[in-house]
Write a structure and sequence with these properties.
- The structure is a single chain.
- With about 350 residues, this protein is mainly α.
- It is built from 17 helices and five strands.
- It has helices at about 5-30, 65-80, 95-100, 105-110, 125-140, 150-160, 165-170, 170-180, 185-200, 210-220, 225-235, 240-245, 245-270, 285-300, 310-320, 325-335, 340-350, and strands spanning about 40, 60, 90, 115-120, 120-125.
- Bound molecules: glutathione (GSH).
- Glutathione (GSH) binds near residues 66, 67, 163 and 165.
């Protein structure tokens, strides 16, 4: 064989075949993303995490931007548990699949989602079960709890504010109508797309080309093509993405009608009993479920579409919730980290007209 042919074969093997085979073997061996059963799992034991290194008996995996994480952080905070003292917080960068869907994290939470609470080495999956666990395990009697006569309504409210990706994947419209929590991802789409279109690299929601390639390599592990689709669509359609891309439009139109149902119901529920919260003047776990939803609605711009007098109950409720101790402190310390994200969102809202003519009265 000619020397140049041998050189070509060696180059082909080194540059293409070896990396490709390595990738295939890595995909085969790597744990895969899968749904988890909500609740406490004493039969599963996970290793202590090294980042930061700890042997603490209570650990929370979360991300600052994640709504479901906010719910559990509020629950821990209002229960009087302090990060770094009573529990160790592990920050997971959900935009980096190497962290969120990496070997280490999938061994802890096979869903590759945040939050995940670990107590004495055993995980509690899904945020609505985590807040129930916190109530049962760490709250002094009465704290964040309700009187017996409110128990059923309290549980129903926790269910309404839960987010179940499994339901959204089957039928997003039905899922959004079923739970206010299922509206969280679709209601954030203007923020995601707005940042893909207008944000610079300073925004943590901006996806660059290398991030795109990384997400692509991770598809066989997490099966997540939604983010890739949104990236390509936002590059092609820019400010018109929400109008021109049918699956995105379906989701955003779905929120537009589902959120009205949930706010009407909430308006009735908050006016049912006296007091600033759902069941009186004492904060409950059910109230904490509404914080991430109303917070996200406020930040993206949905809440401002609701008339202040027709939805007076919702507005008063939000005004009370945003003054709760943990949320106030968190906003003081963390809201500046959202400034680039918010800037890009505001530009997108202006340019795309996503909320133009939309008003709930
Ligand atoms: N039902 C879960 C939903 C968790 C969830 O979807 N979390 C989002 C962040 S708010 C997430 O991790 N998304 C990334 C992904 O699932 O890949 C819970 O309540 O904990």
């Amino acid at each position: 064989m000619e020397t140049y042919a041998i050189i070509l074969i060696v180059m082909f093997a080194t540059l293409i075949l070896v990396p490709l085979l390595t990738y295939i073997i890595w995909v085969i061996l790597h744990p895969k993303n899968h749904d988890t059963v909500p609740g406490y799992h004493p039969e599963i034991t996970v290793k202590h995490n090294k980042n930061p290194p700890t042997t603490h008996k209570l650990e929370l995996y979360y991300q600052m931007f994640s709504s479901n994480s906010l719910k559990v952080r509020c629950a821990l905070g209002e229960a009087g548990l302090v990060e770094g003292v009573d529990f160790i917080g592990h920050n997971i960068n959900m935009h980096d699949p190497a962290q969120a869907k990496g070997w280490t994290y999938l061994k802890i939470n096979p869903a590759g989602a945040v939050p995940c609470l670990v107590h004495n080495g055993h995980p509690i999956y899904h945020s609505h079960e985590q807040i129930r666990y916190i109530l049962k395990t760490f709250c002094k009697p009465g704290l964040l709890d309700v009187e017996d006569k409110f128990k059923n309504e309290c549980e129903a409210s926790i269910e309404t504010t839960s987010m179940m990706k499994e339901e959204i994947e089957v039928d997003p419209i039905k899922a959004m109508e079923k739970r206010a929590g299922n509206c969280l991802f679709p209601m954030t789409i203007p923020m995601f797309v707005g940042n893909m279109v207008y944000a610079g690299s300073e925004s943590s929601l901006q996806l660059g080309f290398t991030d795109f390639i990384k997400q692509l390599l991770w598809v066989p592990i997490d099966g997540n093509v939604k983010i890739l689709g949104m990236y390509l669509a936002s590059k092609k359609h820019g400010k018109d993405t929400l109008e021109k891309v049918a699956p995105v439009k379906t989701l955003v139109d779905g929120v537009k009608s589902a959120i009205e149902i949930h706010m009407k119901n909430l308006n009735v529920q908050v006016c049912k009993y006296e007091g600033k919260y759902l069941f009186g003047d004492e904060l409950s776990m059910a109230d904490l479920g509404w914080i991430p939803i109303l917070d996200r609605m406020k930040k993206v711009g949905w809440l401002d579409l609701f008339d202040k007098s027709s939805y007076a109950g919702v507005w008063q409720y939000w005004n009370a919730l945003e003054k709760t101790n943990f949320y106030t402190e968190k906003e003081k310390n963390e809201s500046h980290k959202m400034s680039y994200i918010m800037e890009a969102l505001e530009t997108f809202k202006k340019e795309s007209g996503v909320f133009e003519g939309l008003k709930y009265v």
